[in-house]
Amino acid sequence: MHATLGRDPDTHVLLVTEDYLVPVHEAEGGPALQFRGADALDSEPAGWAYLGTYGGTNYAMARGARDMRADQWLGLRDIGAEVGDLDAGLLVQAVGLAQWHDRSAHCPQCGTMTELRDSGWVRHCPVDRTDIFPRTDPAMIVLVHDGADRCVLGRQSVWPTDRFSVLAGFVEPGESAEQAVAREVFEEVRLMVTDIRYVTSQPWPLPQSLMLGFTARVDGDQTLVVDQDEIVEAAWFSRAELMDAGRTRPRLPSPVSIAFQLITDWLGEKPAAPAWT
Ligand SMILES: [Zn+2]
Question: What distance in angstroms lies between residue 125's CA and the mean position of ligand 1's atoms?
Answer without folding.
Answer: 5
